[in-house]
Specification:
The chain has a single domain, classed as Gcn5-related N-acetyltransferase (GNAT) (Aminopeptidase). It is built from four helices and five strands, in the order E-H-H-E-E-E-H-E-H. It has a five-stranded mixed beta sheet, with helices on both faces. Helix 1 packs across helix 2. It starts with a strand and ends in a 25-residue tail after the last helix. The model has no long low-confidence stretch (mean pLDDT 93).
Length: 155
């Protein structure tokens, strides 16, 4: 396996792997709108603070980590927005090996923390715990859906 830094020039294989993984179980995300998918990938890999890392088997992208660098008072962090391994490569230790490569790369760059969010009811949760991540007891994820009817002027 080869670990390497990816860029916007790798958008096609990045998009293909992301779509292949996240439209299947257990996520079953609907990425059927190519414009929305393209905009999402651009958001993740095309910003000045983006950090996209890949794991390749020959020429095939089989592992992907997309996130951003965030400068924080405790040191610089890598905030992972998306992490995935191609279906046929899962459950073989490749994800754990990829994470070790990511950690070594980040350590070389002086990045002190990795931060990510995941759901408790998907296999990724146990995977991250197995690989040394811990739940932050004092943090809570909050979300609010914006209803277009509640916007002033849409009465």
């Amino acid at each position: 396996m080869e670990f390497r830094l990816l860029s916007t020039q790798d958008k096609e294989p990045v998009t293909a792997l992301f779509r292949d993984v996240f439209t299947e179980d257990p996520w079953n995300d609907d990425w059927s709108d190519p414009e929305q998918l393209g905009a999402y990938i651009d958001d993740l890999i095309g910003q000045s603070n983006s950090l996209t890392l890949g794991y390749l088997d020959g020429d095939r992208l089989v592992g992907l980590s997309m996130g951003r660098i965030k400068h924080w008072y405790e040191g610089t962090e890598y905030c992972i927005d998306e992490f995935c391994i191609a279906g046929p490569y899962q459950h073989q230790g490749i994800g754990s090996s990829f994470l070790k490569e990511i950690e070594a790369y980040l350590a070389e760059k002086g990045i002190r923390h990795i931060f990510l969010l995941t759901d408790r009811d998907v296999p990724a949760h146990a995977f991250y715990l197995k690989n040394g991540f811990r739940e932050l007891e004092n943090n809570v994820s909050l979300a609010k859906k914006i209803d277009s009817l509640s916007v002033p002027g849409n009465d």
